[in-house]
Design brief:
heterodimer; A: 212 residues; alpha/beta; Aconitase, domain 4; 7 strands; 32% helix; B: 468 residues; Aconitase, domain 3; Aconitase, Domain 2; 5-stranded parallel beta sheet; 15 helices; 31% helix; globular; binds iron/sulfur cluster; Aconitase_4Fe-4S_BS (chain B); 4 iron, 4 sulfur cluster binding (chain B)
């Protein structure tokens, strides 16, 4: 996993609540057996005017000029500003893969769906929960000033606005550590292999019917 | 000992290791695998040179991509075929407890075949790279959906990194009215608490109305816990649970059964156990439900109307309703019973079990598909359900009514195969998600119970099944 330390980047505002994983990456793209290459189809139904097909080159597809990511001022954005319950719906990890592949490393929202939130951390994407009023203000600032950037410092747990104001955010200490170091969960867990084996032996003795 | 909730019992019996911040390693008893969310996990495992920890925990099938007709032609879509063949190859190489490949007699939707084969048992932790894994909580299992990285993590370590959820009790008291089903109960719950109402919680469903449901009905309710934002739904063990499991192929037998059953009977919340939140519904007030929008919480009763955004003060809510109505092609204040449908879908891991098909068939019997309805798909959840339905003659009832009787699979629940809505088409669907484009780009989905879906199919518009 790519480590995450400090990011200073353009912000794109996606002003709708309950953005679900079907919208983030429509299901026809789930047929891939690869982990990469989902970026061009991120938000496919909103981003393009035609219907996207897997394996098709997106360069020449008609773009929806009204969709925020198609506007010139948000090109190169790596921070996504979102509304309540972002990432609801299915457990597909293709959603964070698509966001990451597109270039997003930080998503800020008042709330996230659980599974999506979890999946982000495993893919080097930092989801940040901020109070709705704070997110509202960021939306206003971002929409009001072209080239709006935020600096996100994971170690310090701060987001710094262009006007210099710093916003503190919470992050689970374990997740933070993994993200800062780019650690892979499996390697970490296997350090406890003996404990897992001991637990399993005990469980097998107590409840043999789960091991048939 | 202090009284414990069912969730706490399941949680504490699976903790292998706990970090100071509360992150725990949870042991996983059952790992369900399907073709869409597993290829990258198998690949990651191989690339890292790791072996699966316990092959006998794996139950696998192909369901999302498989066609529901013309099986003699195989899978014609090359991309779908590649995904299914990749699963075949991976399972052949790695191994599993059970594998039901495409066209196997017992193949079907992963959440249908797990329980019907007795590979889902009370007290287990069950995971799958699919959010509707919450279904299995109907058996007092700690069951939830995981992402592909976690699929790989479970394969490699037999554990999952988890934080303990908060607990919520949703109690449905009293008796359900005639024509009101488990689907209506869960839609009414989501309508009340919202699609984010359960975020961060494990929801236990209780109360006399839940107790009176069959296992099929309880699975329908737990299936949609995720649509209320909760990763896991739970129902305590009782006689209904044990009666359902007793003769299932992978359920324990003889003395093992007796030992298991004695333990399973303890899998309920203790008297006086404290929940972080309690929500109470009165079963008698629940009427058949129909969704009108693009989120399961956008729901009303069959005698209700499409909401009027002008009446909503909160600007974010108003805009959400306006957007949904525009997508759905609906006018404010239209009576739900006047909305015409183009297609009907009876199936999915929410409502494709034998009882669901019986309920739909009871409505279809002696009636026929309305002329304005282009197609009615009936897709059983598994090969076993299909043959059971055929033994009961339900297939004939459907076919005589002009419905199509298909092979098992996920089908038009998410339209990854050829079964889908055309842009602008409206569908009465027994599935679980009415998101934009879920059943095909531009398609419009209304979630209903199987009986209500059949009522819409024969009426041409949504209709109160109680009046038919
Ligand atoms: S039936 Fe639908 S919700 Fe259930 S597993 Fe299949 S695609 Fe997912």
């Amino acid at each position: 996993m790519k480590p995450f330390t400090v990011l200073d980047a353009i912000v794109a505002p996606l002003d709708r609540a309950n953005v679900d994983t079907d919208a983030i990456i429509p299901k026809q793209f789930l047929k891939s057996i690869k982990r990469s290459g989902f970026g061009p189809n991120l938000f496919d139904e909103w981003r393009y005017l035609d219907v996207g097909q897997p394996g098709r080159d997106c360069a020449n597809r008609p773009k929806n000029p009204d969709f925020v990511l198609n506007q010139a001022r948000y090109q190169g954005a790596q921070v996504l500003l979102a509304r309540d319950n972002f990432g609801c719906g299915s457990s597909r990890e293709h959603a964070p893969w698509a966001l990451e592949d597109y270039g997003f490393r930080v998503i800020i929202a008042p709330s996230f769906a659980d599974i999506f939130f979890n999946n982000c951390f495993k893919n080097g994407v930092l989801p940040i929960v901020l109070p709705a009023a704070v997110v509202d203000e960021l939306f206003q600032q971002c929409e009001g000033a072209e080239g709006y950037r935020l600096k996100v410092d994971l170690a310090a747990q701060t987001i710094t606005r262009p006007d210099g104001q710093a916003i503190a955010f919470e992050v689970d200490p374990f997740r933070k550590e993994c993200l800062l170091n780019g650690w892979d969960d499996i390697g970490l867990t296997l350090r406890h292999a003996d404990k897992i084996r001991a637990f399993e032996d005990r469980r097998r003795a107590e409840h043999p019917y789960y091991f048939a | 000992m202090a009284p414990q909730t069912l969730y706490e019992k399941l949680w504490s019996s699976h903790v292998v290791h706990q970090e100071a911040d509360g992150t725990a390693l949870i042991y996983i008893d059952r790992h369900l695998v399907h073709e869409v969310t597993s290829p990258q996990a198998f690949e990651g495992l191989k690339l890292a040179g790791r072996k699966p920890w316990r092959i006998s925990s794996i139950v696998a099938t192909a369901d999302h991509n498989t066609p529901t007709d013309h099986w003699e032609q195989g899978i014609t879509d090359p991309v779908s075929r590649q995904q299914v063949e990749t699963l075949d190859a991976n399972i052949r190489e790695v191994g599993s407890l059970v594998y039901f490949p495409f066209m196997d007699q017992r193949q079907g939707i992963i959440h249908v075949i797990g329980p019907e084969n007795g590979t889902t048992l009370p007290g287990m932790t069950v995971v799958c790279g699919d959010s509707h894994t919450s279904t299995h909580g109907a058996f007092a299992c700690l069951a939830h959906g995981i992402g592909t990285s976690e699929v790989e993590h479970v394969m490699a370590t037999q554990c999952l990194l988890q934080k303990k959820s908060k607990t919520m009790l949703v109690r449905v008291d009293g008796e359900l009215g005639r024509g009101v089903t488990a689907k209506d109960v869960v839609l009414a719950i989501i309508g009340q608490i919202g699609t984010a109402g359960g975020t961060g919680y494990a929801i236990e469903f209780g109360g006399s109305a839940i107790r009176s449901l069959s296992m099929e009905g309880r699975m329908t309710v737990c299936n949609m816990a995720i649509e209320a934002g909760a990763r896991a739904g739970l129902v305590a063990v009782d006689d209904t649970t044990l009666d359902y499991l007793r003769d299932k192929p992978y359920a324990p037998k003889g003395a093992q059964w007796d030992a298991a059953a004695a333990y399973w009977r303890t899998l309920k919340s203790d008297e006086g156990a404290q929940f972080d939140k309690v929500v109470v519904l009165d079963a008698a007030t629940i009427a058949p439900q129909v969704t009108w929008g693009t989120s399961p919480e956008m729901v009303t009763t069959i005698d209700g109307r499409v909401p009027d955004p002008a009446q909503v003060a909160d600007p974010v809510k108003r805009e959400g309703i306006e957007r949904a109505l525009k997508y759905m092609g609906l006018e404010a204040n239209t009576p739900m019973s006047e909305i015409k449908v183009d297609q009907v879908f009876i199936g999915s891991c929410t409502n494709s079990r034998i009882e669901d098909l019986r309920e739909a068939a009871a409505v279809a019997k002696g009636r026929s598909k309305a002329a304005n309805v282009r197609r009615v798909l009936v897709v059983p959840g598994s090969g076993l359900v299909k043959r059971q339905a055929e033994a009961e003659g339900l297939d004939k009832v459907f076919i005589e009514a002009g419905f199509e009787w298909r092979e098992p699979g996920c089908s038009m629940c998410l339209a990854m195969n050829a079964d889908r809505l055309e842009p602008g088409e409206r569908c009465a669907s027994t599935s679980n998600r009415n998101f934009e484009g879920r059943q095909g780009a531009g398609g419009r989905t209304h979630l209903v119970s199987p009986a209500m879906a059949a009522a819409a199919a024969v009426s041409g518009h949504f209709a109160d099944v109680r009046a038919l």
